[in-house]
Amino acid sequence: MSNPIVKCTVDQCTHYMPGDQCMAAKISVYNDAMKGTSAKPQDTLCRAFHHRKTMGDMVGALHNANIGGTVSAAFMEGTQITPAVECFVNNCKFWQTGNYCNAEHIHVAGPNASKTADTDCDTFENNR
Ligand code: SF4
Ligand code: SF4
């Protein structure tokens, strides 16, 4: 099992933290259901995305928050905070049995994202 360091530039997400870090405890990466199997990064999405505009989403986000001593310690030390990554995009070359991602780093992107489909795993590479 491996876990990539997540860099995320989706600053519309409740889990986003300055420094392009993700504060979620866990993220799940999926194929965009509308497009079927992913062929390019834009066909993938981060299911843990919560648009930060609504209160309901803030409450939802708190259930998946990587909060507590680890975070404050990490802030103090400048350590990278990164969520556990589960991925269902099994035609990506970094995908591993068990829904793991064996990339060293992934970049989640989605300029002006307002819904999960607007987010992408930019590190996706088709293995077919
Ligand atoms: S879009 Fe995904 S990776 Fe980015 S901050 Fe939100 S939950 Fe984390
Ligand atoms: S790089 Fe590939 S395996 Fe890793 S999270 Fe992104 S789509 Fe999934």
From TrEMBL:
<dbReference type="Pfam" id="PF07561">
    <property type="entry name" value="DUF1540"/>
</dbReference>
<feature type="domain" description="DUF1540">
    <location>
        <begin position="85"/>
        <end position="124"/>
    </location>
</feature>
<protein>
    <recommendedName>
        <fullName>DUF1540 domain-containing protein</fullName>
    </recommendedName>
</protein>
<dbReference type="InterPro" id="IPR011437">
    <property type="entry name" value="DUF1540"/>
</dbReference>
<feature type="domain" description="DUF1540">
    <location>
        <begin position="6"/>
        <end position="49"/>
    </location>
</feature>
